[in-house]
Amino acid sequence: MVWILGGAADEKVGEESAEKVRSVIVSLGGEVQEIKPWGLRNLAYPINKNSEGFYLETTFKMEPSRTAEFERAIATDREVIRHLIVKK
User: How far is CA 49 from the centre of its chain?
Assistant: First the structure.
């Protein structure tokens, strides 16, 4: 999964968001393999009045049936302006 935090986010906010995502994955019975911050980058187009976003990537394993519940949990985080989950 890749997710983007609003442009006001920094390393500290990124670490907090990564920990939230990690805890949600573990609480749903998943296993986090890796979380990598990509840092602050310009967005191709403004999202919620943000021209920049703090990108993070995680690789994890989870039962496919739990994905919808995971996406709902991510959607409630107001810091996250976009996310994308890709199945390998």
Answer: 19
Nearest-angstrom CA–CA distance, 12 and 21: 14
Dihedral sign, CA of 81, 6, 17, 86?
positive
Residue 48 neighbours by CB under 8 Å, 6+ apart: 6, 81
Give the tens place of pLDDT for each residue, 36-54: 999 999 999 999 999 999 9
Q: Say what the pTM is.
A: 0.91
Tokens 């907090």, residue located = 16
With a CB cutoff of 8 Å and minimum separation 6, the contacts of 28 are 62, 63, 66, 69, 70, 73
Separation of alpha carbons 49 and 74, rounded Å = 20
